[in-house]
């Protein structure tokens, strides 16, 4: 009993505390203070830390001329933050004060860019809930997928990557909840409120992958766009191939800016994140519900391990209230939803 008392002391809350741990920390700090090489070691680690911070803050200056490398970087920009803990371990192993100090650069830059996404910005007062889902052309559970999306309680639902064979099944599954709907090409829109002026939107593909409709909600008319922009590919010999996607994004942006209805909601798979400069024709005039009122990053793809939010809900003349991802379905994308105030 006496021996135990000599090696442990009781805190005021009754928990055991080893006085030797404080001694070890003090000894470590003393050793670092007395080490003449503490500022000379770890220069490479420090350089990588500073370069990481500069890469994040100057991402818009990375050229797209070769392989669209700028857009590729911007698509996965938040993940550069994973370098920080790796560099921290290296700095500690090298016992380098220079590297530890340099780590402040990427930490401050990352928090400035993405720190706001870490908090829950959801509020109340929404009067319209919308949802969107790329259901995947190879989806083998159409009914289950439709049920999951309808369970969100959304008054308006958009689906992308619809196939001719699957459309009747989606129509049947969603009919009990949604009285009005329209399918144009491979995209569809379902609504609990009347729809009018529904038509395809030409996004320069040669076939229909976007539509637009005016929906008469109890709080007024809103123009709803559904779009599925072309896919992008990362190829070792061609980089980030996205020229067709970028052309379609420009066409979509032009259609939205000319829309006569003041309140606009865009739902769909844009195959790009809000950071991707190539979507500027759309993102410059609209707000992301996730960025404005979401909880976290809201990554939606791939569903097995989400790494990017390429599925978007964006608004113009409408106030975002909350935004979230829905449970996984048989698709390779997660469905997403948002509450807005008209």
TrEMBL record:
The chain crosses the membrane at residues 43-64, 76-93, 100-118. Residues 10-20 have a biased composition (Basic and acidic residues). Keywords: Membrane, Transmembrane, Transmembrane helix. Residues 131-333 form the Endonuclease/exonuclease/phosphatase domain. InterPro entries: Endo/exonu/phosph_ase_sf, Endo/exonuclease/phosphatase. Residues 1-20 are annotated as: Disordered. One of its GO terms (molecular function) is catalytic activity. This is Endonuclease/exonuclease/phosphatase domain-containing protein. It comes from Streptomyces pacificus.
